């Protein structure tokens, strides 16, 4: 009897799920490992952070995902060690798994960039727990301001990429459309939303036309833009810029930069920029060709944007290459097919840039943005719930624009 290959996939993000789906078709014994029992749809975390959606809307049980295939198992554990020479991974709970092929898709973590006080006083928005923490802190700040226990709820978002722009735009709409009804005790002067970006524009990967459209839409919603500004320090009640300016901040959201977790250095695998694992064109490790890396932790010869589409395509590619290796076939280099990039600023306003140079902004781009994001969600219930939440938040009563779901 021929022994089936053992494949361990660590990480249930976009890359890990895509790799698992491909590998499930091979008949290999696949084990999907993640420290959480759910997969998170990261592009919509800002909606959870601003109380537009509940945590269950953007998460999906990993066991339910794996149940589609009889040869896929799951394990809830955090990776602690990779013993490449022994072809074994160890977990934080003391257990381990032997493998014939390993897929590392653990993702990355927040990069505080050495900014004084950032880790202690700012909140990131990279995980479901992060988003819930931002939501809870925001809700408490607003409640305290309404009851007179605080003087203000000023929010500073650090980082003018897609996450920062989406967060700032949604907060500004919440401030202008919803708070006057839900928190009538708070005056407009007691709240503000400020976006800080070190470049002189937001959305650096986009064409100038779209950058300008996004900046205009943010300003129209009442966001104060601090472009060309570098953060020197984050204090409990302020963000200090490099020129000495102090921006009052009752809640600082860190949407700037990611890096590989520090423990990756202990795995004995080659690392490059940002701590990412250095790979061949086929997305495996040169010294250990049975180890593949996909998603944000990967360092392929040609750098890729850290977005959902590259992660999904890398995961699919890795799954196909392991299938080829099991059959004794040569590995093929990874080729990214760019579908374009998009970001939303708020109601009826998004920017869309296609690889052929075509740019779209406004309502058409916003509708495309909603359709794409809903389509990529796992589970029919989640897709229906998110679509309903979008409609309710942006077309329903203003007082109903927030969620109480945990």
Automatic annotation (TrEMBL):
One of its GO terms (molecular function) is NAD(P)H dehydrogenase (quinone) activity. SUPFAM superfamilies: FAD/NAD(P)-binding domain. Its cofactor is FAD. The chain crosses the membrane at residues 358-378. The keyword Transmembrane helix applies. One of its GO terms (biological process) is aerobic electron transport chain. Keywords: FAD, Flavoprotein, Membrane, Oxidoreductase, Transmembrane, Transmembrane helix. Residues 6-315 form the FAD/NAD(P)-binding domain. Coiled coil: none annotated. It comes from the Bacteria. Belongs to the NADH dehydrogenase family. This is NADH dehydrogenase. It comes from Nonomuraea polychroma.
């Amino acid at each position: 009897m021929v022994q089936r290959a053992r494949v361990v996939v660590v990480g249930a993000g976009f890359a890990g799920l895509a790799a698992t789906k491909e590998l499930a078709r091979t008949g290999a014994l696949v084990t999907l490992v993640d420290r959480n029992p759910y997969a998170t749809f990261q592009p919509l975390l800002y909606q959870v952070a601003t109380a537009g959606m509940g945590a269950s809307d953007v998460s999906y049980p990993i066991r339910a995902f794996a149940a589609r295939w009889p040869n896929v198992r799951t394990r809830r554990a955090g990776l602690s060690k990779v013993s490449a020479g022994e072809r074994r991974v160890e977990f934080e709970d003391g257990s381990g798994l032997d493998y014939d092929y390993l897929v590392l898709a653990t993702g990355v973590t927040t990069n505080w960039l050495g900014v004084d006080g950032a880790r202690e006083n700012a909140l990131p928005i990279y995980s479901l727990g992060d988003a819930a923490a931002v939501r809870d802190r925001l809700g408490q700040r607003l409640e305290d301001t309404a009851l007179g226990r605080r003087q203000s709820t000023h929010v500073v978002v650090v980082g003018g990429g897609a996450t920062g722009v989406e967060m700032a735009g949604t907060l500004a709409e919440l401030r202008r459309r919803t708070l006057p009804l839900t928190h009538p005790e708070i005056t407009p002067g007691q709240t503000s939303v400020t976006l800080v970006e070190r470049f002189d524009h937001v959305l650096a990967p986009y064409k100038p036309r779209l950058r300008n459209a996004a900046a205009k839409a943010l300003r129209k919603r009442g966001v104060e833009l601090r472009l060309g500004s570098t953060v020197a320090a984050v204090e409990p009640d302020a963000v200090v810029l490099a020129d000495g300016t102090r921006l009052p901040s009752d809640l600082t959201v860190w949407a700037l930069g990611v890096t590989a977790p520090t423990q990756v250095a202990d795995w004995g695998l080659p690392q490059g920029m940002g701590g990412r694992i250095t790979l061949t064109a086929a997305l495996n490790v040169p010294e250990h060709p049975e180890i593949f890396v996909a998603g944000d932790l990967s360092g392929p010869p040609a750098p890729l944007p850290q977005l959902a589409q590259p992660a999904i395509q890398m995961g699919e590619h890795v799954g196909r290459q392991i299938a080829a290796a099991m059959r004794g076939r040569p590995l093929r280099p990874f080729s990214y097919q760019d579908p374009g990039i998009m970001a939303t600023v708020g109601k009826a306003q998004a920017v869309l840039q296609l690889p052929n140079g075509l740019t779209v902004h406004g309502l058409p781009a916003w509708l495309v943005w909603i359709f794409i994001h809903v389509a990529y969600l796992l589970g029919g219930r989640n897709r229906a719930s998110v679509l309903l939440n979008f409609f309710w938040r942006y077309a329903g009563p203003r007082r109903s624009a927030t969620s109480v779901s945990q």
